[in-house]
Write a structure and sequence with these properties.
The complex is a heterodimer of chains A (about 575) and B (about 80).
Chain A (H helix, E strand, L loop, with lengths): L8 H6 L8 H17 L6 E8 L2 E8 L3 H18 L7 H17 L4 H20 L4 H32 L12 H13 L7 H6 L5 H22 L5 H19 L3 H22 L2 H32 L15 H14 L6 H15 L3 H28 L12 H19 L1 H5 L13 H23 L10 E2 L4 H45 L9 H24 L1
Antiparallel strand pairs in A: 1-2
Chain B lengths: L1 H7 L1 H19 L14 H24 E2 L7
The chains are: A mainly alpha (about 575), B mainly alpha (about 80).
């Protein structure tokens, strides 16, 4: 029976029991749920569970070489989340994280678009509680906006699925043609969740407003689920290369001027998603492997960075670069783990980012995509200054902070330490890691050219940062809000639409007043000319009778004239 | 050396020396890139340094356009 359960399903059902369990037992119970769910991954590739409802066959559990790496990393990330959030005694966030992780894992194993739609929306509905858990006025607003965008993306998916169903008779989750209408609808649905340029506002709006453990969980699942969907359905679609290139470099500029360090990390997340999208656009075996590998390691190192910043937020109640600094003295382990995350992100040799970024760059080079290649190289250099150096530097080293704090709780340290070990292990032993990728490849990231090229690129990027800082060209951090694409629906549309609505409202009122005036006038005319003491008044019976008789006579005359002439 | 440490600090001096070592490393073996332009001597170093300056320059110029008060959306 258990074998037929799709992975993740156990976690969603099991999450219902979480509110009734005491604190420590709840943490152990959640780990058991994840392990039980992971057990189903041993079943091998193929379709394992189907149900038929309303004459439609829902494929609940389908696994293939592409689902496996995502399923593995989602389970690992779920375990890390449980460890990282163990200090939180209230049940609500744990329940949200468990069902959210379960929904994302189940979505990866969906075999048709309707099953995918159900889990797609489930990830949105379960994860929104993590943003509510931020418990600020801003987080409430951000949560509602997040929910609207995510549910909206689901609506595009549903519309695409229905159209596909009506055209082809089945809704299998497979490779789609971008030139068809259903393909375009599904593309937009995935694009919203993958935070495409101008559709990315929700990401930078909502994630930094979530609780410290919520942001870690959010950074793992939603966007990577979209990457998985793109890899499955739109591999080799040329437009993705252009979109991906734009995605990699555009958020960099915002990340540099942003003050909230968790928001800086969301811009960085957006930029790294661009790398994966470019690779999926290339679509070769090496490129798809690169995209999947980058998604897997990105979950680890970005999770680690969010964990570090979450620990800082938990201890100091702020994540603003302008208020932080000098925390290395008080939180050395958190600092070291964050640095490992930052170094992995920057793709230093011997760390996880290096073995995946070189895969993508090599795939681009092999396909002769020179423009995309240099844009990605440009972003690789940039990532070091806007995130790799900036985040740990402003949190732990820059100017002496007035805030004094304790080291992060033990459970957070264990989670960060585990993620750090994984980042280093993947960097040192890439061949074992490459084995879980969808295609069998023989790729050697550690050759002289790759290593020297990368360390020169990163070394001199760091030197550029040092020059900017030393010569005081780097401006001091100030509290601010950086406008992003969410400005369109938060300020511009209300700014344009509200006056328009008021105008329509005023016009409407004037129109009604005019109608009222017209009605009263016509009524008065009738009253004055016909009713009061006039022909139709009952009091004046004779007049009325004469008029009616005349009317009948005229009618008869017309009738006869019609008949005889 | 002592002058440099006094002038720019210990960390910056060490980063500078490490960077110079990275340059020397290139002279030991033959480095080649995915494209022919990358075969130019010290290309990654020059590209990395200039990229960061350009990114920084653009970002700072965007400040006046995109940077608002902290409570911009709360008003």
């Amino acid at each position: 029976m258990m074998n037929n359960f799709p992975p993740g399903f156990v976690m969603i059902i099991g999450a219902l029991l979480i509110p009734f369990l005491p604190h420590i037992i709840r943490q152990i119970y959640m780990l058991v749920l994840i392990i039980t769910s992971a057990y189903t991954l041993t079943l091998g590739f193929g379709i394992h569970t189907k149900i038929t409802l309303m004459d439609f066959e829902f494929i609940l559990f389908q696994s293939d070489p592409l689902t496996l790496p995502f399923a593995i990393i989602f389970h690992v990330a779920a375990v890390l989340n449980v460890m990282y959030g163990a200090h939180v005694k209230l049940w609500n966030q744990h329940m949200a994280i468990m069902s959210y992780s379960g929904a994302a894992i189940a979505a990866v194993h969906a075999g048709d678009l309707f099953t995918l739609f159900v889990w797609w929306e489930a990830t949105a509905i379960t994860s929104v509680f993590l943003i509510f858990a931020g418990k600020t006025k801003r987080s409430y607003g951000a949560a509602f906006r997040y929910l609207i965008v995510q549910i909206g993306s689901g609506m595009f998916l549903l519309a695409g699925a229905i159209l596909l169903m009506s055209e082809t008779g089945d809704a299998e989750f497979k490779n789609f043609d971008i030139n068809s209408l259903y393909g375009q609808l599904i593309f937009i649905a995935f694009g919203i969740k993958a935070a495409f340029p101008l559709l990315n506002g929700w990401l930078q709006d909502a994630y930094p407003e979530a609780s410290e453990i919520g942001t870690v969980a959010l950074s793992v699942f939603t966007t990577k689920l979209a990457i998985f969907c793109f890899a499955k359905s739109f591999a080799g679609t040329d437009i993705l290369i252009l979109i991906g290139v734009f995605m990699t470099f555009f958020p960099m500029f915002f990340a540099i001027i942003e003050n909230d360090l968790r928001r800086v990390l969301t811009y960085c997340l957006n930029s790294q998603l661009g790398f994966m999208i470019v690779a999926i656009g290339i679509g070769t075996e090496l490129a798809i492997n690169g995209a999947v590998a980058h998604a897997v390691v990105h979950i680890l190192y970005k999770g680690l960075l969010f964990m570090g910043m979450g620990a800082v937020l938990y201890r100091t109640s702020t994540c603003k670069a302008s208020e932080l600094g000098g925390l290395f003295k008080y939180m050395p382990i958190t600092a070291i783990c964050t640095i490992i995350g930052a170094v992995s992100l920057s793709a230093f040799p011997l760390f996880s980012g290096f073995v995946t970024k070189t895969l993508i760059l090599s795939a681009l080079g092999k396909e002769g995509q020179v423009f995309a290649y240099f844009m990605l190289l440009f972003s690789s250099a940039g990532v070091l200054i806007y995130s790799g150096i900036r985040v740990p530097f402003f949190a732990f080293f820059a100017n002496e902070s007035k805030i004094k704090s304790k080291e992060a709780p033990l459970n957070m340290i264990i989670a960060m330490f585990s993620a750090s070990i994984l980042c280093i292990l993947i960097g040192i032993l890439p061949s074992y890691f490459y084995n879980i990728l969808p295609y069998q490849i023989h790729y050697q990231p550690y050759d002289f050219s790759h290593i020297v090229g990368q360390i020169q690129l990163l070394g001199f990027s760091a030197l550029a940062f040092i020059c900017l800082w030393h010569f005081k060209i780097y401006p001091s951090e100030i509290n601010s809000t950086i406008l992003n694409s969410d400005w369109i629906y938060r300020k511009m549309l209300p700014g344009v639409c509200l006056p328009l609505l008021n105008l329509v409202k005023n016009l409407n009122q004037k129109f009604y007043k005019f109608l009222e005036y017209l009605f009263v006038t016509v009524k008065n005319i009738f009253a004055n000319t016909m009713i009061r003491n006039k022909v139709f008044d009952r009091e004046v019976g004779q007049d009325t009778l004469i008029v009616v008789q005349l009317f009948i006579v005229i009618l008869v005359l017309i009738f006869m004239w019609k008949i005889y002439f | 050396m002592k002058y440099l440490i006094d002038k720019i600090g210990k960390t910056n001096t060490s980063v500078l020396f490490v960077c110079i070592m990275f340059l020397i490393l290139e002279l030991i073996g033959h480095r080649h890139g995915e494209t022919s332009i990358e075969d130019i001597l010290f290309f990654p170093a020059i590209f990395g340094f200039l990229s960061c300056i350009i990114i920084f320059g653009i970002a700072i110029s965007l400040r006046s356009l995109f940077m608002m008060d902290e409570d911009y959306y709360d008003e």
